[in-house]
């Protein structure tokens, strides 16, 4: 038995949501509908922004990149989730698992940065309207977006290399919707302290920094809105920011729940529900 427990794992078996057979078809249809809404909605958004010259502004420029990233983000996770439900569990190689983990981290990191950039863009538009055109030039917009992609790549590369230097042995079943770091750490048979540190570093230096930029930006925006005398003007300005704040709260709230806590003894059921929120629901436009 001891020898079996230390058999090296070279592939993983994903089994999320397969324990209740009566829910397989309804969940498959729900997740498929979410995926179609994400891909069609975000693709339509990109095409509309590209075709309508009135939307060639910094805000919609950032929104088009966010839509593109959301399509890629959802496409990294949901098709495999559908395969797990359709086949009642699916096997993935370690290389494929690493590739999915890299892409998920890459697109999730870019999402974080883009949401922070969009908050700064709204701050500039509301609080410094006379300087907006001077600050948010085409060159500045491309620089901010390029920085988000480069930082996302670096974060994903470091976390993927660190995570998959672990040795996995014994049970190869992942009762989760995709190859994420918390469930992978449960399967490691060596010391995972350095990998735990990477989780904290990612959480502390990516999410809180982006959240801080967003909170400070919207604090200034709220102050500016309160100084608007017209009730209609206040409502119009706030409505522009409300949808962005809702997406920020849902996306960052679920990521913090997953990454800013101890990964031992977690509830797999709760983790899977939360993971659906930040991988399936938040990319919907």
UniProtKB/TrEMBL annotation:
Entry GO terms, CC: plasma membrane
GO molecular-function terms, A-Z: G protein-coupled receptor activity; odorant binding; olfactory receptor activity
BP terms from Gene Ontology: G protein-coupled receptor signaling pathway; sensory perception of smell
The UniProt record lists the keyword Transcription: no
Source species, domain of life: Eukaryota
Membrane protein topology class: Multi-pass membrane protein
Subcellular location, record wording: Cell membrane; Membrane
Pfam families tied to this protein: 7tm_4 (PF13853)
InterPro entries the record matches: GPCR_Rhodpsn (IPR000276), GPCR_Rhodpsn_7TM (IPR017452), Olfact_rcpt (IPR000725)
Alphabetized UniProt keyword annotations: Cell membrane, G-protein coupled receptor, Membrane, Olfaction, Receptor, Sensory transduction, Transducer, Transmembrane, Transmembrane helix
TM segment ranges: 27-49, 61-86, 98-120, 140-158, 197-226, 238-260
Boundaries of every G-protein coupled receptors family 1 profile domain copy: 41-285
Family: Belongs to the G-protein coupled receptor 1 family.
Protein name stated in the entry: Olfactory receptor
Species this chain originates from: Macaca mulatta (Rhesus macaque)
């Amino acid at each position: 038995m001891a020898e079996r427990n230390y058999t090296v794992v070279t592939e993983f078996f994903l089994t999320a949501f397969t324990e209740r057979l009566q829910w397989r078809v309804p969940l498959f249809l729900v997740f498929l509908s979410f995926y179609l809404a994400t891909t069609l909605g975000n693709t339509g958004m990109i095409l509309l922004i590209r075709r309508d010259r009135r939307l060639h502004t910094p805000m919609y420029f950032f929104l088009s990149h966010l839509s593109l990233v959301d399509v890629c983000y959802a496409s990294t996770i949901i098709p495999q989730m559908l395969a797990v439900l359709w086949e009642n569990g699916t096997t993935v190689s370690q290389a494929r698992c690493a590739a999915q983990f890299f892409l998920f981290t890459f697109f999730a990191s870019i999402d974080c940065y883009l949401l922070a950039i969009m908050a700064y863009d709204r701050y500039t538009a509301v609080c410094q309207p006379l300087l907006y055109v001077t600050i948010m030039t085409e060159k500045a917009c491309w620089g901010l977006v390029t920085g988000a992609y480069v930082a996302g790549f670096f974060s994903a590369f470091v976390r993927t290399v660190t995570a998959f230097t672990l040795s996995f042995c014994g049970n190869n079943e992942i009762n989760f919707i995709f190859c994420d770091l918390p469930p992978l750490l449960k399967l490691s048979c060596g010391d995972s302290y350095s990998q735990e540190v990477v989780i904290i570093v990612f959480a502390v230096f990516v999410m809180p920094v982006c959240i801080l930029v967003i909170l400070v930006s919207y604090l200034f925006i709220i102050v500016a809105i309160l100084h608007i005398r017209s009730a209609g003007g206040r409502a119009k300005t706030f409505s522009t920011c409300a949808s962005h704040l809702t997406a920020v709260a849902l996306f960052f709230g679920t990521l913090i729940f997953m990454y800013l806590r101890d990964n031992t003894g977690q509830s797999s059921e709760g983790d899977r529900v939360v993971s659906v929120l930040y991988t399936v629901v938040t990319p919907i436009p």
